[in-house]
Design a protein that fits this description.
Length: 228
């Protein structure tokens, strides 16, 4: 059964973010096809997509390579997120559905519960799901797509320190959902701006300004099914 190119793209992207494919390393179609158990055709398509997203660059005499973003490019991503997440929250206040609210409220309850228990690993996953759902509630496919790409690239370039007060952080999440539920776009925007600015301070580059990557843990990829 032919594995779709988007599944191969997701797997390669996840490996880049996890550090399996290091910054600046070559990405040959033949090697990638063997690694993921696919033909070269979906790999070629995936590399084109990843190049458009900024994870891959094509170099003369070397072919496709993992991109090596600069410190300024990394900082720009955080600034873009600080600008776009509040826009998404404001749109969510105007366009959210009851299904979106149900999921957001459920995530806030779980987040507050895990925060009280000190379950930091769970909180990272829940935080990602919260912001992904908030973006989807904006009703804008384009905005959701951009924010998803930003989250992937920020996770690739930065490590994130646990908040000093996880309970307070999830209280902020709850306040954002309350504003979205009331349809108060300006308050949703303001609260999300404050939350994003605070979160930015917890990000630490994975690589030095000179471009030397800091080693991080690597995770094997499970190709048993698409991870979208």
């Amino acid at each position: 059964m032919r594995i779709p190119a988007h599944s191969v793209c997701t797997a390669i992207r996840d490996d880049i973010v996890a550090g399996v494919h290091e910054r600046g390393s070559r990405l040959t179609e033949e090697v990638l096809a063997r690694r993921y158990g696919v033909s070269r055709v979906p790999v070629r398509e995936a590399l084109r997509t990843l190049e458009a997203e900024g994870f891959v660059v094509t170099r003369r005499h070397a072919g496709a390579c993992v991109a090596e973003p600069t410190e300024q490019e990394a900082a720009d991503l955080l600034e873009m997120r600080t600008l776009l997440e509040p826009l998404g929250a404001a749109r969510a206040a105007q366009r959210r559905t009851e299904a979106h609210l149900k999921v957001l409220r459920g995530l806030v309850r779980l987040g507050q519960e895990r925060a009280r228990r000190g379950s930091n690993e769970d909180l990272r996953s829940l935080g990602g799901w919260f912001h992904e759902t908030l973006a989807q509630a904006s009703g804008s496919t384009s905005l959701t797509s951009v924010l998803t790409q930003l989250r992937h690239k920020i996770a690739w370039m930065y490590t994130v320190e646990a908040p000093v007060s996880p309970v307070e952080s999830w209280t902020e999440h709850g306040a954002i959902v309350d504003a979205v539920a009331r349809g108060d776009a300006e308050r949703a925007r303001a609260l999300t701006t404050l939350h994003a600015e605070r979160a930015t301070g917890a990000h630490r580059l994975r690589f030095s300004p000179a471009g030397e990557r800091v080693r991080t843990s690597q995770h094997a990829v499970n190709m048993s099914g698409p991870r979208l």
